[in-house]
Write a structure and sequence with these properties.
The protein is of the alpha/beta class. It has one domain: 3-Layer(aba) Sandwich (Rossmann fold), CATH 3.40.50. Helix content is about 40%, strand content about 20%.
């Protein structure tokens, strides 16, 4: 196995921390981008809001992975928090892409975080990477997010966008909130439960990111979602079976809109997203079904 040096922004997040553990366990050197003063050789200072990166710390990196961004569901979507969500992704990506482009020996790949939110609400219609962006805040955010990596791509660096779905994990994200409710017997469908949720096990998310890093022939957008998206009603039933808990407590759409504001549209919206390019590249999912993904998270 060739040992590589890989820089990761967002290394303390749900996906980033799992990716760092996976890389380090296989003997790769991981450089974490941090907003505070570095505490050792394995950390590099950056300030995404100011579009600053200590480029000297990226020297010798074979790959740069950007998974940084303020949590989509951490706060109600006020205008101020929507700016925070946008700036944390767009400015951070631009800063890293510009830093990568400025290096005498750039990394061989830049992996930028993105999301299936780019497609908007697709209803029952299945979409893959060929689908155009949808309408609304999240689609426009994702378009800007990916466009912000232009400097790296124009410098000849292979540039990949990981359009991630809903990650099934206990440590954070949507499922980090769902697990305690279901384990307490309080889980249930959201709204009418007919909306599609395109999920992915955390294990498969990390494996897919490593696949995108390693494969020299892959560039552009890739949907990181399990191959068979399910409705919220089907996912609710699957979680109930694995956890052996009732799933009687549905949450009405009106209550979600009252509690979450604009974010409720994302929870109630339907995204039936397929990982066509990932499958065509030969990637194999370890947990393609929801019950396997839930068991892996437990």
């Amino acid at each position: 196995m060739e040992r590589t040096r890989i820089a990761v922004a967002g290394a303390s997040g749900l996906i980033g921390s799992a990716l760092v553990r996976s890389l380090a366990s296989d003997g790769h050197e991981v450089v974490r981008l941090v907003r505070r003063a570095p505490r050792g050789a394995g950390e590099v200072r950056w300030d995404p809001g100011a579009r600053y990166v200590d480029t000297a710390g990226l020297a010798g990196c074979d790959a740069v992975v950007n998974l940084a961004g303020a949590g989509i569901g951490d706060h109600r979507w006020t205008d101020a928090y929507k700016r925070t969500i946008r700036d944390s992704r767009v400015l951070g990506t631009a800063a890293l892409a510009e830093a990568v482009a400025s290096l005498d020996r750039p990394p061989r790949v830049f992996v930028g975080g993105s999301a299936i939110g780019i497609y908007g609400d697709t209803g029952d219609r299945a979409v893959d990477e060929s689908a155009p962006p949808g309408d609304g805040f999240l689609p426009s955010l994702c378009v800007e997010w990916e466009e912000a990596a232009a400097a790296a791509r124009e410098a000849g660096v292979r540039t990949v966008f990981a359009r991630t779905g809903l990650v099934v994990a206990r440590g954070g994200g949507a499922w980090g909130r769902l697990f305690p409710l279901f384990q307490a017997g309080l889980g249930g469908r959201l709204g009418d439960g007919r909306q599609y949720w395109s999920f992915i096990a955390l294990h498969d998310e990390v494996a897919a990111l490593r696949h995108l890093i390693d494969r020299e022939d892959l560039a552009g957008p890739f949907n990181l979602t399990a191959p068979n998206p399910l409705t919220n009603r089907e996912i609710t039933a699957g979680m109930g079976r694995v956890l052996r808990r009732p799933t009687l407590f549905g949450v009405p759409a009106a209550a979600l809109r009252l509690a979450l504001g604009e974010l409720a549209a994302d929870v109630l919206g339907s995204q039936r997203v397929l990982p066509r390019r990932l499958l065509e590249s030969g990637f194999s999912f370890a947990f393609p079904d929801i019950e396997g993904a839930v068991r892996a998270a437990l």
